[in-house]
Amino acid sequence: MNPVEQDIERRKGEIVAEVNALFHANMKFTDWDVPEADNALAAKLILETMQEALDGLKAKSDAGEFK
Predict the structure, then answer these.
(1) What domain of life is recorded for the organism (predicted)?
(2) How far is the C-alpha of 35 from the C-alpha of 45, rounded, in Å?
């Protein structure tokens, strides 16, 4: 394993925790902003939005923007 792989592997749990925290924070915002929110729909839409963001980052990475 090269040093970059070792570094990311070491921080993998932290990265996953941060992604989970972002999701849960957005769920809370929806609960605060929308009375009687449909949590299943909110979760679906938040996850779709997060996936769009990840797809955008992957496209930039594939295009060499992070070299």
Answers:
(1) Bacteria
(2) 17
